[in-house]
Amino acid sequence: MINRTAELEEELEKKEEEKEKLDMALSQCQKQLETSRSQLNEVEMRLTELNNMLSAAQKSKQAAEEEARITHESMEVTESRPMDVEEEMKNLLLNVKLLQEEVERERALSAENEAKCREMEDENLNMKRDAKLQHEIELQRVAVYDEQLKVKQEQELAVAASRFAECQKTISSLAQQLKSSLVPIQCAITLMKDY
């Protein structure tokens, strides 16, 4: 029983070590998830800013085109301005596209980290449940063994008591026989002394 208890304690220590490792990995995964979320928020803010800039550029282009239609003064300047704005819009659209792709990557990474965290949390919960169940099973085994050992000891004690009682009876009988045998001898010794 002592060996079994020691094995149980050693097994529980191993379970605790595995639990600590899982807790550390889970903490690291949660930190990565927080970092990914922060980066995702940052990228979404940048995307909002670029969308605002794109909207402003579109308004500027519309204003420039309207100005070109209304006035034909400074034709070269007026014509070059929409072209510059259009080029700027192309660059902004390209940046928006790149940022959208980055947002998608960050979302995918965030979803992957969340899945990993959930998986590690489930694994940690299962290990805790298994360790608790194993501990309860071992306690039940120890209790059953103690009960069996107690019954066995009581049975052996009863047998020993019975044998002891028989030995006492035998000793008493032998003592009685010895006493009966000694009476004639004592009488003969007395007669010889008187003689």
Order of helices and strands: HH
**Rg over CA atoms:** 49 Å
Number of strands: 0
Using the alpha-carbon principal axes, give the shape. rod-shaped
Low-confidence stretches: none
- The rounded distance between the terminal residues' Cα atoms is 75 Å
Briefly note the structural class of the backbone. Answer: mainly alpha
In percent, how much strand structure appears in the residues?
Answer: under 5%
Q: Which whole number gives the mean pLDDT?
A: 78
Helix content: over 70%
Number of helices: 2
Main sheet: strands, sense, barrel:
none
List keywords for this structure.
single chain, 195 residues, rod-shaped
Descriptive notes:
The protein has 195 residues and is mainly α. The model has no long low-confidence stretch (mean pLDDT 78). It contains 2 helices and no strands. It starts with a helix and ends with a helix. Helix content is 97%, strand content 0%.
Quick rundown:
The protein is mainly alpha-helical and 195 residues long. It has helices at 2-70, 75-194.
Ordered list of secondary-structure elements with their pairings:
Elements: H1 2-70, H2 75-194
Helix pairs in contact: 1-2
